[in-house]
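ok so for the tutorial part 2 we go from a plain amino acid sequence to predicted C-alpha cells. step 1 is just haveing the sequence, like this:
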Amino acid sequence: MTTKLLCLATLIPSLLVAPLFAQSDWPGYGRDAFGQRHSPLTQINTTNVKRLKPAWQYGVKPLTPETAPGANGIAATEAVPIMVNGILYAPTLDHTIVALNPETGQELWKYQLGRTGAPLRGVSYWGGDKEHPASILAGTSDGKLIELNAKTGKLVPGFGNEGVVNLKQGVSDKYPDAPYHMSSPGTIYRNSIITGAQGKEDEPGGPDMDVRSWDLRDGKLNWTFHTIPHPGEAGYETWPPDYWKTAGSPANWGAGTMDEQRGLIFLPIGQPAAQYYGGARHGSNLYSSSIVALDANTGKVRWSFQLTHHDVWDYDAEAAPTLMDITRNGKKIPVVVAVSKPGLMFFLDRETGKSIYGVEERPVPQSDIPGEELSPTQPFPLKPPPLTRHGMTADEVFKGEPEHEKFCKDLVEKIGGIHSYGSYTPYSSKEIREIFPGQQGGPNYGGVSVDPSLGYVVLNTRNVAGMGREDKRPEGDAVAYRRFSPLGGGTTNARFWDPSNALPCQQPPWAELMAVNANTGDVAWRIPLGTSDKMEAAGIHNTGAFGQGGPITTSGGLTFIAGTNDARFRAFETKTGKLLWETKLNTEGHTNPMTYMGKNGKQYVVIVSTGLNAFALE
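step 2 — the prediction. this is what the C-alpha cells look like for a chain of 618 residues:
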C-alpha cells in the first residue's frame, strides 16, 4: 500500500476505507468468494521479494529427524489461515483453533478441542448481524460444526445446541461409528453456511454424504442436496436402483465457491465407492467426480459437469471451482475454471456449465475385470491440452543417478514390465499397470490461482503414477476386486516410485508449475517445480518434486507456492515463471499460502507447515 493511498484514505475515509480494508484481508479459504486465491497487495513485488525474511512463527515444531520431510513424524497440516478485521484465525495440529495478532503471531485466544481433531483445511468467517456477533465456523473430526465468537473464542450459545450442530444426525444414524466430518471450510452465503463432508472411500456403505445449508443464526437446516440422486431426481438412472440407500459416497469434501449475485454455489464432488472397482455400480454415477452448480437458496441443481464418468481411478473432483471472467471475441464471459486430477482444465460457462473451448468424448481403454463396465469415452477439453503426464513407455524408465536407476530397473522387472496405455488406463486383473496420473492426481485440492490482470490461471501438477493390479477378493468382502500392491502392504495405494524417498521411476519432470492463458486456452509457460537433493548431487537438475498444496498470486506480479516435499517455499514471477526467491521450511508446506496487510503497514505472507510461518520484507 503506497503512502499516497494511505493519505487519501485518511482524507476521504467514507470513500476509501472499505476497499482498502478489503485489500488488507484474506477472509476465506480461497481469499474471496470466487476462490481466485489472488491478493491485490503490491508491497511485496518482483523487485524486492528477494528481501523477504521470516517475521514470526506460531506452533512450528523444531526440525528433527522425526519431523523432517518424509519421516514418520509430525504431519504438515492442510489448513489455510484467514485474516479478517485485524485478526488471524487458524486450526492447529495441537487440536486447537486460535486467534492470533497478524503482526506478531501472539495468541489472542485459543479454543481447545480436546481429543477431537481440528478442521483439516481451515475455518470460515461470518460477519454476523445486528443480533448476532461475528463468528468463526469450524467442522471437527467427530462430525460437529461449531460456531465461535470471533472476538472471544467462546461458543455462540444460540447456534444449534449451545454453539454446536451435530452434522451426523440425519445422515449417519445407520452408521454411528463410521467416519464422518467436514474436510474443507464451509461456504458462507448471506446468513447461511453450506457444508460438505468426508467419510468412507475405500468401500461402499456409510453415512449419506449430503450437502446441506444451515442458518447461521440458530443452526437450523435450510436445505439438503443428495450427491447420489434419490428416486424422481435427475441422474437417478445413472446408478443401480436404490443404490443411494447404502452407498455412502460420493462426497463433497473439497471447498466450494460462490457467485452471490447469481445465487449460485459451485461444488466439487468426489469419487464413488469403491474407489477402484465399479462392478456393483454400473452407469456414469452422477454426481460423482463432477462440478455441480446449486441454487444457494434452495439447493436445487442448476447444472452439473462430470469430469470423469464411472470413476474407478479415484479421480474425484476436489479442487475448489474458481470463478473468473474471460474475454472471447471482444465479449466478456463469466466462467468456472474446473481442474481434474487427470490434469484436464475446463472453462465452463457460469450460467450453463457448457465448455467455452469445447469438449469431445474420446474413446478410452476398457477393463478386463469381470463385472466391470467402464464408460467407453471420457470428456477432454479441446483447450488446453492435458497438463500432466497420461502414460509412459519402457524407454521412459528413469536413467541417470545410479542408485535410483537400479531401483527403478529392479522394480520394472519385479512387476513384469511397463503396462501403461494412455489416458484413463484402467487397473487390470491380469497384470500390474502404471496409471498416469495416479490416485493423487496431477492437480489436487491445492487447485488454481488467478491473476486477473494477466488473465492467467496458475496451477501445479504432479507426474506420479499409481501402480497395482486388481485381485479377486474372498466371498463376503464388500468389494469383489481390490487393488494389490507389488511393493507390499496388501491393497495399499502403491505408486510407481521408491517409497523411501518419493522419487518416481519415470524420467522427470516429476512436478511442474504452469500458467494457462484463460483468454486463449493456451499454456503460457510451464517449469519444473521442486528439487531432489539426491538428484542435484548427481548433476541432475530441475526434476520437480512431489507434494501437496497449490499457489496464490498477487498484484505484485508474484506467485507464491510451497507444495513440494523438498520443504521449500518459493516465489515466482507470474508473467514468466522465473524463480525469484526461495527459503527452507521445517517440513513440507502441505497447503496453499495466504497474504495480508498488517496494521503496521507491512505485507505478510504465511505458509503453514507444522505451524504458521510468516514472512515480510526486512
